[in-house]
Protein 1
Amino acid sequence: MKKEYILFIDSGVGGLSTLAETMGLMQANFIYFADNLHSPYGDHTKADIFKYLSKIIKGLLKKFNIKIVVLACNTATTSSIENLRTYFKDIHFIGTEPAIKLASDSGAKNALCLATPTTLEQVRFNKLKSMANGTVRTLSVPSLAMSIENNLLYKKLNFRLQFLKDFHLVCSSAASHDGVILGCTHYSLIKHDLYKTLCLPIFDGNFGVAKQIAKLQKNNSGCNEVRFYFSRKEMGLTQKYRKILSQILANKINVC
Ligand code: DGL
């Protein structure tokens, strides 16, 4: 029988935070696909994101036995999960969404949700937001996901400066709130820095997503195998992704 894989997709490194959380709960064969040709997704339309995702999934389904696809990206989930479920009827899709419910259940009354511009525009996001018990304010920092990504992949001064600017904007906006809701998997990579700086609860949905995956995938493969694929190939990228994944797993991720 053909080996079974769980497919994770994001525009870049953000979904590694979801994958690491999942690997902490179960063992399986994973494929991680970074659509780096089209990153950031936060700058693209709903129609384009659906087009990119369906092409990636179709291509991988031809080669691999995949039953579960994890959209390890809030932008991909809020814009496309419903259409993907209709299009790929035999696949089980699991999405990542801003942790608004977690914040509500924890009693946050005035939280700030950080997400990409595309996520904040989606009907699915606004429905989720309307279900919160308290007030949820939103903040989009269009360059934040890429400044995190670029810092982790390429150590250059201009990326560092951009990240510091973005981080400062997030912290100054969050200061008047009682919690920060992460609405992009890239932001999970800075959750410890946010917590250390703000001393506020940081709501991250990744653990809930990992629990859903572990519940769905009953057979443990006995080892965690991860294969990496990219829509734009670059020398050494697989090694960089592996290194970032092991840093997240070891709780030693450091963006700056
Ligand atoms: N990691 C992504 C998310 O959760 C997307 C960042 C981007 O490509 O804009 O939304």
Note: The longest strand covers residues 4-10.
Protein 2
Amino acid sequence: MEKILCSVIVPMYNEEEVITETYTRLTKVMDGIGENYEIIFINDGSRDNTGAIIREFCKNNKRIKMIDFARNFGHQIAITAGMDYAAGECMVIIDGDLQDPPELIPDMIKIWRDGYDVVYGKRKSRQGETFFKKITAKAYYRILRGLTNVDIPVDTGDFRLIDRKVSEALKQLPERSRYVRGLMSWVGFKQTAIEFERSERFAGETKYPLKKMLKLAMDGIMSFSYKPLKLASYIGAILSGISFLYLIIVVIQKLFFPETSQSGWTSLIAVSLFFNGIILLMLGIIGEYIGRIYEEAKGRPLYIISELKNMEERIGPRYKTKQNTSPD
Ligand code: UDP
Ligand code: MG
């Protein structure tokens, strides 16, 4: 088999409006490099024509490969599958909506050839995104940095080039709540940034509604830190200290100033509401972690593939389904 220099990994979820343009721009850039390459489209359970369009590309161009998921497993799982099946010496993970410019890939490859293992895209600016998204993203990356011990670079997404050895290392991390950019920082290697202007989505709407974004944000924090748990126990300790002091005051009041101890209905309700709120919040934090332990304990595969195209012979490292097991 001919050696592949670069695998481009593109997750696609209901992207029929952009996929043709993405294909055109990506193949143009990759052809310009003059090396053997492949583009792996992961169809993440799209309900529109995305799958059919990718199949069409695969028919006309053997460099286009497809991983067709049995349902929507989510962006982070899609890029994980892409890395699992990629054959290139290096891999580029890029969004399918052209927010990450494919034209940056040759520069990334140059930097990789200079000896870096991870070249991540750092967003200088973000166009076409709401004020709310920009401000929450900015705040989030900083909170994440404060809460976790792994050095996750600020203002970077999943757009990046990685060396094969990084993806090999990632295959050893089996966790389900995957925050891929965090995992990549965790495995280490020689990393550097390349700055770019994040442009508007070429067409269509974001496939990351608030709910999915919150999940990703929680995954980022919870998979890399148990500081929220620590915080819960600190707050608990401080509050029970204060409560104990107040208890002494109340007892003294009762014993020595019985006439004043009758009042205080409002403060009673206030204290009760406040503490119940805190307790529920802490239970919630603990619950989040327990839920994640439950997810991991089930040990289900990360994704189920219904079909591979133009790389039927490849075997994913995690699990072998019928389609991709070699007949031996
Ligand atoms: N995506 C995916 N599965 C999902 C959601 C998104 O594969 O469940 C893909 C989507 O098709 C796109 C990339 O992930 O290529 C980034 O999604 P999007 O552009 O909607 O996110 P945003 O840029 O708005 O954060
Ligand atoms: Mg996008």
Note: The radius of gyration is 25 Å.
